[in-house]
Structures are given as structure tokens and as C-alpha cells.
Amino acid sequence: MFNYMTTDYDTVQMKMSADIEAEGLDMLSLLYHFLDEFLFIFSAEPNFIARKVKILEFDKENFKIKARGFGEIFDISVHPQGTEVKAITYSNMQVYDNENQHELFVIVDI
């Protein structure tokens, strides 16, 4: 998602961190809320863009997650502007778990 927001993701440095928490009713809604939290901290002041995300806690039975994003404040003079991500799209979201190989399919609204 963040790679859409800047055309040169290599310009994002890990100068600071931001923590998020999300919960859902099932795995799909948890994924939706997880991505939506990161989209919110990018869209709201101070416009944090993550380069790396570390999962701090993951309760897959109760569908709760805590994560820390490492990155910096988005600055148009440093980070080439890419496509604006307006929202996470819940429609057609998919999570696959095949023999510990996890795959996600998410459409973002641009």
C-alpha cells in the first residue's frame, strides 16, 4: 500500500516508529482494520509513511493485532508523490493459508 503512495519507496527512511492496534470479527475484517489503521496514520497529521512493519502481538483466536511501523513523515520534497490511496476495499479481500504459506489479496481504492 505504501509503495503506491510514493514512486520511489527507497527514499523512505526508518527514522521513527508508529504503533497501531486493530481488531476484527474474523481474519478478513482484521486485515481490513489493520491496513485501514496504517492508511489513517498516513492520511492524518503528521502523515507517517512506513517502510517496514513489525507485528508485536497477534491473537488469531480473538482477531486482534498490534504492530509497529518504522518509517518517517511523508515529505513531498523528499518522497516523490505516487498514487493517493483513498481507502481499503473490503470487497474481494482474500486470505490464503496453505501449509504455512500465507497469501493476501487486497484491492485498494485509488
UniProtKB/TrEMBL annotation:
Gene3D superfamilies: Archease domain
Key word tRNA processing present: yes
Domain Archease: start-end pairs: 1-110
Keywords recorded for this protein, A-Z: Calcium, Metal-binding, tRNA processing
Keyword Metal-binding tagged: yes
Similarity remark: Belongs to the archease family.
PANTHER family: ARCHEASE, PROTEIN ARCHEASE
Name the UniProt record assigns to this protein: ZBTB8OS
Organism: Cordylochernes scorpioides
